[in-house]
Structure to design on (302 residues):
């Protein structure tokens, strides 16, 4: 399998709000507020770049911000394939972080909503061994049609596919059955435990794995502080615990996990090693604010 990865997903600016205590309706609460680059697909691409994986990232951004986004991705070891939208600005996400590091989101997807099949040309698949698609791309008609077209072309070229459901809120809104029908079969599914429960209607992890394994060749379920499991239609094959770390902000932890796992996969590591690399990446991610690695790790020539 070729080791280059193509990621398709959203580019966002994350406005991260950490109140000192419960919100006071109609009044003030002191808070620490930071602005960070984000978006689930963008996070995964940057974590892959930080892991030394050759990665391309395709998305739609505001035309006025396109050059800035491209420069940042290049500095972070990612080859950006971005289309500038003349009407909508890049997306923005407000994240409210509670004292335990858990998050709630307010999302304006902006230019991401105009992603089209023309933005995802056949050339994106050249030399690619795995296409990773963020579930956010399935939650609006235009982007959904765009990634479904890319999926069909990837299947025709025998390029492996990985899906990350991305959001229980949007999954519940569109309906789990619709989401699974829109996605179709794929080689990999990376879901957290809440997404796995919503997609299957099962609370038991073994039943979740078996049911999801009927549609996806390999299933990885991320369980936060409990670690993660990998398996398929035969059930859970491997599980690994997570190390105990101080959780500052869980934003992007699942994206970091997926990138660590995929980096191992692209390096031809066994599944046990891939799972361990994913868990380690997720643990690193929760120890700082924001969904992407701290610091710029690589440079790619445009």
């Amino acid at each position: 399998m070729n080791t280059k990865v193509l990621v398709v997903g959203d580019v966002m600016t994350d406005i991260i709000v950490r109140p000192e205590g419960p919100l006071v309706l109609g009044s003030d609460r002191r808070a620490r507020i930071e602005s960070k680059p984000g978006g689930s697909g963008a996070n995964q691409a940057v974590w892959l770049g930080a892991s030394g994986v050759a990665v391309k990232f395709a998305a739609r951004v505001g035309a006025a911000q396109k050059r800035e986004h491209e420069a940042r991705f290049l500095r972070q070891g990612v080859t950006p394939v971005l289309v500038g939208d003349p009407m909508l600005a890049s997306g923005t996400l407000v994240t409210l972080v509670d004292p335990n590091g858990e998050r709630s989101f307010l999302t304006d997807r902006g230019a991401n909503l105009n992603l089209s099949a023309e933005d995802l040309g056949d050339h994106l698949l050249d030399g690619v061994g795995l296409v990773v698609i963020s579930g956010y791309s399935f939650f609006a008609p235009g982007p959904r049609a765009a990634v479904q077209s890319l999926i069909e072309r990837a299947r025709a070229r025998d390029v492996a596919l990985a899906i990350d459901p991305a959001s229980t809120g949007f999954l519940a809104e569109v309906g789990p059955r619709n989401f699974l029908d829109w996605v179709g079969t794929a080689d990999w599914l990376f879901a957290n435990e809440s997404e796995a429960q919503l997609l299957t209607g099962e609370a038991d992890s073994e039943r979740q794995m078996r049911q999801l394994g009927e549609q996806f060749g390999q299933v990885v379920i991320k369980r936060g502080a409990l670690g993660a499991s990998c398996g398929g239609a035969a059930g859970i094959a491997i599980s690994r615990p997570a190390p105990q770390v101080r959780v500052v902000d869980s934003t992007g932890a699942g994206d970091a996990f997926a990138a660590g796992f995929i980096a191992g996969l692209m390096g031809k590591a066994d599944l046990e090693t891939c799972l361990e690399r994913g868990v380690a990446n997720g643990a690193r991610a929760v120890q700082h604010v924001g969904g992407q690695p701290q610091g710029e790790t690589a440079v790619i020539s445009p």
DSSP finds nine helices and 13 strands in the chain. Residues 141-156 form the longest helix (16 residues). The CA atoms of residues 159 and 172 lie 29 Å apart.
